[in-house]
Amino acid sequence: MTIETSPDPETPEVPETEAVSTLIGTGGEWWRSAVIYQIYPRSFSDSDGDGIGDLPGITTRLDSLAELGIDAIWLSPFMTSPQHDAGYDVADYCDVDPIFGTLADFDLMLEKAHALGIRVIVDLVPNHTSWDHAWFKEALAAAPGSPERDRYMFRDGKGPNGDEMPNNWESVFGGPMWERVTNPDGTPGQWYLHIFDKSQPDLNWENPWVRERFHDILRFWLDRGVDGFRVDVAHGMIKEAGLPDYTPPADAGSMGGGTADALVGLEPGIDADASADPPTPPYWAQDGVHDIFRGWHSVLEEYEGERVLCAEAWVEPLTKLARWVRPDEMQQAFNFTYLSAGWDAAELRTVIDGSIAAFATVGAPSTWVLSNHDVVRHASRLALEAENLQGAGIGPNSPGLPDPVVGLRRARAATSIMLALPGSAYVYQGEELGLPEVIDLPDSARQDPTWFRTDHEKYGRDGCRVPIPWEAGSPTYGFGPAGSTASWLPQPGDWDELARASQEGVADSTLELYKRALALRSLHGLGTGTLEWIPGYGPEVIAFRNNGVTVIANLGQTPVELPAEGPGEVLLTSEPLNEPALPADTAIWLL
Ligand code: NOJ
Ligand code: MG
């Protein structure tokens, strides 16, 4: 079966006035096939020894990213913030938080990245601000019904004294989605909505003033030369009118995604009938969000070059997610359905087919992602033996903890599959070192608001955010400068072998596997290729061809014989092979 990635001009999603090809240019834009490396600044490289990674730290490490062979970096937020949600609570969108450096540090970092041929994407957090933002302070100081309050989601409480919450919505991080404010005279006042922590009040995106301010913010960063934006919670900005009560199903992940059984959609490539979608929560994936992104698309078009918007939208099925990347909206959307798929060949095949087909209907490339700062690292997740909903995290008392050897083996095979797929791929810092989730963080070190708002029921996301190791033998594994012992989350004691310098030049290391895969991906144009499944293998095998490269992965336990005829040259194996058969949890690329 061959699936073309080219747009289907028959699709009902395409605006009638222009052909897809005119809207999307030549189809050769960099982001269609780019490998984008996510930097989580606070955990990447610390230049000043305060235990928190920073922009100068990133600048000093850019050469190592160029060597890795990535095309772009995406930086999680480094803007001014009280850091109640690790910077996803922004108090000033147009400045750098002092813990990360200054705007001048940003400019230097950008300049060096561009000189190395690395594009730079910054994180924009439009669904909510920090409660420290001047707009929110002005809203609190102003009266109910004022224009200042209308920038946020303030409502009167229910009941005779207004002391009941306006509705029953529950925060993604646990507890209610509402917080009551106190009036200047000390009496209890209105309530404001916060999908996340109470320090992250939601903006009112029905208000044109809010829309205009974000156009200014986009231009501020575009003027500085950024190549695009990763858009936080791009499925949450508009709420259903009337804010009706809603109780999510038990198997919904915290950001709105489902479990590993996630739906990919109808038949691949079909998105004609919105009524076939599963029920939409009143705060996720409302139709009104698309207008916002059309406006942003136009702002990006004011600028030279190929700038990009990438949606962080936990929306299923994929046929619905494809609406975020229609030709006049965003360029990319994270494929969390792919990330959520289990270690199961049939499920992966369905998700891959469904992804390519769903995105193709709107002329967009599929993206692929296995890890980020919100999910259990895939070197652990792929060997979990109990269900783990997104955002829950794992800790010492979680059920079904992973075997680290099996996890790493699967992660290397999974990455070898992902980097051979056509489209754009996201890599999260540290996965190129094979880092596992840090499970045994002391409770006292945990910082994710999820941990606190669920009364320690959910461990949250700290385990994938531990500062990454650069060198063996130094107190912070080289994360901090010489002599520094500070690290905002404690690093495990046994990471010497995982440190980047320990893996450099070591043939079978995970780092060298990534470098090799990225170089081959570029050499053979896999990002722009076409996927063709190879029939004849058992149900536990993934086998496909892309631009002349044959990829076979054994997700089962029984060794799989390699083809006696046909492609012969071994380009890459996710594990060293001693015989002409593919052992359990192993992938191979052949030419
Ligand atoms: C998604 C971000 O990736 C996550 O880290 C954050 O907590 C929420 N959005 C809220 O901004
Ligand atoms: Mg620092």
Automatic annotation (TrEMBL):
SUPFAM superfamilies: (Trans)glycosidases (SSF51445). Residues 38-465 form the Glycosyl hydrolase family 13 catalytic domain. Its EC number is 3.2.1.-. It comes from the Bacteria. GO terms for biological process: oligosaccharide catabolic process. Keywords: Glycoprotein, Glycosidase, Hydrolase. GO terms for molecular function: alpha-amylase activity. Pfam families: Alpha-amylase, DUF3459. Coiled coil: none annotated. InterPro entries: DUF3459, GH, GH13_cat_dom, O16G_dom_2. It is an enzyme of class 3 (hydrolase). Belongs to the glycosyl hydrolase 13 family. PANTHER family: ALPHA-AMYLASE FAMILY MEMBER, NEUTRAL AND BASIC AMINO ACID TRANSPORT PROTEIN RBAT. This is Glycoside hydrolase family 13 protein. It comes from Herbiconiux sp. A18JL235.
